[in-house]
Amino acid sequence: MKTESLPSYNWFVGKDAKHWSRAFFKDIGLCDMLCNNMCEAFNAAILAARDKPIITMMEMIRNYMMTRPARKMAELEKLFLIACFKFVEKVKHKSGYYYPQYSGNFTYQVRARREEQFVIDINDRTCGFNKWQLIGIPCVHGMTALLSTNHNPMDFIHLRKQRGRPKKKRNLQSDEIIIGNTTKLRRNYVVVRCRKSGKVGHNRVTCDRRGRGTDSVATTEGRSQSVGGTQADGGSQPVGRSQSVPGLQAEHQDGQPRGGKRT
C-alpha cells in the first residue's frame, strides 16, 4: 500500500488497527464485517426523514431506531437456522481441501495445500485463524476437525444465553413494594400503632405500662407542688394537708407504689 499510495498508507497507520484489521477485532460482537454496509443501510433508511424539519426528522429517526430491534428479532427467529444451515453447507464444501491431524486432547492441526497450518481446539472452540472466535460459527479449519471426528457442526454454533435459569419476574419500578415475599425484609417498614390510644410507637400490650409511666411523672410533680405549698396561680396550701393528685389512686391500688419492691 505504501508503494501504491503514500497518503493512503499514512492514513491507515494513523488509525488504530482494531478499526480496520480483522486480526485485531474483538470477538465480543461475533461479527467480522469490515465494510460500511451498516452505515449505508442506515442512511438509506432515514432518507425520507432527512428533508423534514428538525423535530419531525428526529422523531422519525427515533421511531425507526425504536422499532428496528424488535422487527429484526422477529425476522431472525424465522431465518436464523436457515442462514446457519446455508453457511455450514458452504463451509463443509470448502473443508474438503484441508487435512486434519489429531494431536490429542481434542486439538488438531489443520493443514492446507498452500502449507498453511492452524491449531484447532474443539473444547475451547478456538482456531488459530481467529475466525471461529470472531463469528461464533465453525470456520473451514474448525469444520475440517469436526467432520473428521463425526461431530455435528450445528452443536458448535454460538448461541447467546444468559447465566442461570431464565428470568420469570418482571422488573419492578423504583417505588413498588414487594408484597408476599417472606424471604426478604421490606424497605418500607410497618408502622406500629396502638389500638387503645391510637398513638404510634407501641402496641396495646405495652400501652398501660406507658400510661403508668406518664402518670407517675405527673404524681411526682404533684407531690413536689404539695410539699412546697405553691401553685402556678400563686395560691398556697398547708404543708401537712394532703392534696388530691390525679393518678395517685391508680399508683397505690395494691398498697404500695408501682416499681417499689414488695416485702
TrEMBL record:
InterPro entries in UniProt: Znf_PMZ (IPR006564)
Domain Zinc finger PMZ-type: 125-152
GO molecular function, one term: zinc ion binding
Highest taxon of source: Eukaryota
Bias type Polar residues, positions: 216-229
Entry-linked SMART domains: ZnF_PMZ (SM00575)
Residue segments, region Disordered: 202-263
UniProt-listed PANTHER family: MUTATOR TRANSPOSASE MUDRA PROTEIN, POLYPROTEIN, PUTATIVE-RELATED
Protein name: Zinc finger PMZ-type domain-containing protein
Native organism taxonomy: Eukaryota, Viridiplantae, Streptophyta, Embryophyta, Tracheophyta
